[in-house]
Amino acid sequence: MSTFPACPQCTLENTYPDGANTICADCGYEWSTAETASTDDDTGSVVKDANGAILNNGDSVVLIKDLKVKGSSIALKVGTKVKSIRLAGGDHEVDCKMDAGNFMLKACFLRKA
Questions:
Q1: H/E/C letters for each residue in 65-80?
Q2: Are residues 51 and 38 in the same domain?
Q3: Higher-confidence residue: 56 or 20?
Q4: What is the tens place of the pLDDT at every residue in 46-89?
Q5: How far out from the chain centre does Cα 60 lie?
Q6: Average pLDDT of 34-54?
Q7: Are residues 31 and 61 in the same domain?
């Protein structure tokens, strides 16, 4: 197993060092090893909903806007309650499971229930 961090772009673990940088063999993304160390220390990032309330793993949230699912004809309706969310890194901070499937949502379209 590799002792190098997973790729921040594709999240695969097939990475290798190249001088002061780390390179992902799968997607070709290259980043600074010092950059990875500083982001690993920032594990306490706070995710806030549309009203500014802090979200935690296991919280229940409600959609505040109709959301179209990209690449599908499904739409998530306003007022839909989502139970036991998981927080994830990246642009879409909330990972949740609904009747329509599993989704990654932005916290700005949610409010804490």
A1: CCEECCCCCCEECCCC
A2: no
A3: 56
A4: 889 999 999 999 999 999 999 999 888 999 999 999 999 999 88
A5: 17
A6: 70
A7: no
Helix (H) or strand (E) holding 30: strand 30-32
Range of the domain at 71: 47-112
Q: Answer yes or no: is pLDDT of 90 > 80.
A: yes
Question: Taking the complete model, does pTM exceed 0.85, yes or no?
Answer: no
CA dihedral 77, 80, 86, 87 (to 10 degrees): 60
Helices (H) and strands (E) in the chain, counts: 1, 13
Beta bridge partners of 26: none
For the chain, the C-alpha Rg in angstroms (whole number) is: 17
Q: What is the mean pLDDT of residues 36-52?
A: 68
Helix (H), strand (E) at residue 47: strand 47-48
CA separation for the pair 3, 6 (Å, rounded): 9
- Give how many domains the chain has, as a whole number: 2
CA pair distance 61, 107, nearest whole angstrom: 9
One-letter amino acid for residue 103 of the chain: F
